[in-house]
């Protein structure tokens, strides 16, 4: 659930394991932020110490992109010592400004209890926000949690709807999960799940309760 990617100088990919982090967004339209741009260049050149300094400058000014990238450096320990509390702090700051990938990361921190007390309620809240913002893996994670009763009560109807949402947003593992869910759904519940997903397309993703009509 927590994959983190940073590009090194040669453009190859370094992966640091945990469960559920997304890749670092490096190229942006915020070219007016000179310090942030220098941080991006530093990452591309494998100079994470400089990237940390430059991202910190813009993060403290409130730039969500810098806050998001800074949280990844704190999480991965590249350019700075690993500090999960700081990773949480900056993920929360970026997520609170509407940065969708940061919302996903924040949910993953709550899920694992990294840098913050574990909270299933906050996990679901932030995965939900990210999924409503179009993050495909967030929808998949919600589906999986509801399917496996992982930290939350089982809800196969909502699990099916979230899996469909992940498929809608082209998440590759979602079709297999959908099939697993459907194996456990009665015809009546399957119909309810399909109606729920259809309703979301009108009222907003995740905005209605699963119902059995």
Please give a structural write-up.
This protein is 61% helix and 5% strand. The protein is mainly alpha-helical. α5 (100-112) runs antiparallel to α6, α6 (120-132) runs antiparallel to α7 (136-148) and α8 (156-168) packs antiparallel against α9. The longest helix is centred in the C-terminal third of the chain and has 17 residues, at 187-203. It is elongated and about 55 Å long.
Classify the fold: give the CATH topology of the largest domain. Answer: Serine Threonine Protein Phosphatase 5, Tetratricopeptide repeat
Task: Give me the secondary-structure category.
Answer: mainly alpha
Main β-sheet, in a few words?
A: 2 strands, antiparallel
How far apart lie the N and C ends? 34 Å
Q: Tell me the CATH superfamily of the largest domain.
A: Tetratricopeptide repeat domain
The structural domain count equals: 2
The number of helices is 10
Secondary-structure blueprint of this entry?
Elements: E1 3-7, E2 13-17, H1 34-44, H2 48-61, H3 64-76, H4 84-96, H5 100-112, H6 120-132, H7 136-148, H8 156-168, H9 174-182, H10 187-203
Antiparallel strand pairs: 1-2
Helix pairs in contact: 1-2, 2-3, 3-4, 4-5, 5-6, 6-7, 7-8, 8-9, 8-10
Note the main attributes of this structure.
two-stranded antiparallel ribbon; 10 helices; Serine Threonine Protein Phosphatase 5, Tetratricopeptide repeat; mainly alpha; 2 strands; 213 residues
